[in-house]
Every structure is written in structure tokens, then in C-alpha cells.
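Changelog note: in this version the structure field was regenerated for every chain. One regenerated record is shown below for reference.
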Amino acid sequence: MIEECLTLATQAPTGRNRQHWDFVFVTDPDRRAALADLYRMGLVRPRQPLAGGINRGDADGWDKIANSAQHLFEHLHEVPVLFVPCVRVTDRQELQYPVRSANIYGSILPAVRQFMLAARSRGLGTAWTTPHLHYEREAAELLGIPYDTVIQTALIPVAYTIGTDFKPGARVPAAEVAQWDQW
């Protein structure tokens, strides 16, 4: 089923059709546990300041989000598949340039989103997470990823969902975020 989802993901558009992506699927229990430890360290001992900024979300749903996040924190190592989408680069200095960074992430995001949608249509749940990136070098060593020329973009747990009663997420109305012809 993961391979079916990946086949659909690789049909996503990518900048100049370069397809410079790679997808690491971690199923080994010891590697999953070690990767989950890096995720947890990224949350409790981040190496970079965490982003603040605008929050348009509704505070009413924070308890549910916090409970879900706590559950993932405690059980990530038990998830059967951890998915690490990656992008090949000439070297990490490419990330210093905004246009190049946009191209790097703009090439992997559509593929990952297609993977996540394909997974959902098959009864699999996913979540885009990034805390392990505070320890990306250590994750690269753990997974044999060439750190100097491959950028990890996320850590996505993949597992069957409990139940199928899904509802749309609470979001601000589209009219509040749409700007027409100028800001």
C-alpha cells in the first residue's frame, strides 16, 4: 500500500521536472525508536528558536490538538512506518538563497501532499512533523542519508487510523486570507 501511495506521489509536479527527491521509509523498530527520540529531543531541546508570529487558529480546539500532540510524543516509536521525504542538492549552501529554497521545498511538497492524500484514501493517517530537523545530522547518520547533499524535509508517521469519522479542520474563512490584485 505504501508503494501504491509512493507511485502516486511521484506523479506530482516538480521544478523543471528534475525529480530530485528521495523517500526514506523507516520500518525497523530500533531505527524508528531512535528517530522518535530525535523528534522528542527536537521538541524539548530545540537547537533553533521556534517560530512565533501570526496565529489565525481558534483557541477552542487547542486541548484536542495538545492531547493529540502529546499522544504522538509518547507513541511515535510505535508507529509502523516513519516517512522522511528528502531532496538532493549540490550542497547545503543552496538553502541560503530564497529562490533556491523555494524551488527545493516547492519540488518536494506536492509529492508529499499527494502521498498523504493517497494514504488517506486507503485508510492511513499521516501528519507532517519537523522537530527531528533540529537533529537532522544525527537523523542522517542513523538513516545513512548523505547529510551534505540531501535535505530532509519532514518526518511523517504513517499508520492506519482509528475510526473513519473525519471532519474538516477549523480554519479561518477563505475571504479573510484572500487578497485580490494587491495586499
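Spot check on this record: Strands lie at 21-26, 81-88, 124-126, 150-152, 156-160. The CA atoms of residues 140 and 146 lie 7 Å apart.
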